[in-house]
Amino acid sequence: MIRVFLLDDHEVVRRGLADLLQSGGDIEVVGESGSAREAARLIPALRPDVAILDARLPDGNGIDVCRDVRAVDSSIRGLILTSYEDDEALFAAIMAGAAGYVLKQIRGTDLVDAVRRVAAGQSLLDPAITTRVLERIRNGVEQPRELKSLTEQERRILEYVAEGLTNREIAARMFLAEKTVKNYVSSVLAKLGLERRTQAAVLATRLLGKTP
Fold first, then answer.
1. CA–CA gap between residue 158 and residue 185 (Å, rounded)
2. What is the pLDDT of residue 211?
3. pTM, whole model, 2 decimals?
4. Where are the strands (E) in the chain, listed by range?
């Protein structure tokens, strides 16, 4: 049996999906939720083979749930279900490790097939929009506007600052003199219009997703 968890904020949708998936006899719905926060807690505990995750929820989104769940148990396969054909969301889904991204307009039989394929280890990403996203990945994700003034070396320094490293630790990582790192940090602060190192760390954490 393929074990499936359902995340959608509409109970009627969850019931319809459960009936559809379980009609084939080889799929069992082992849990469901209408809350992103609750789902992130329940899914690792229930350990389904596939989690069908609504992309947009009142208290979050299925893409973040997918990322959080796979950080705990990478064997759980995430299938993002959405009403919108959105390049940004698809890109985020790929980065979150989702195995599939399908539109809610999909036919019921195709969704059941998608669950089976994802459970078998296949990647199921809509080819109509995946091509554009992969092109974006190949060309590199556009840098946030605030960071465009920084050189590559200064950006690396900023990332290390965001991780909480001291100038001495950064110098050791980059094989630079501590005084050189200090100068780089001063340059980064000046370019970003900041006064303190802590401000740079907060900004970098927001823009780069770095965790100190």
1. 8
2. 46
3. 0.62
4. 2-7, 27-33, 50-54, 77-82, 100-103, 124-125
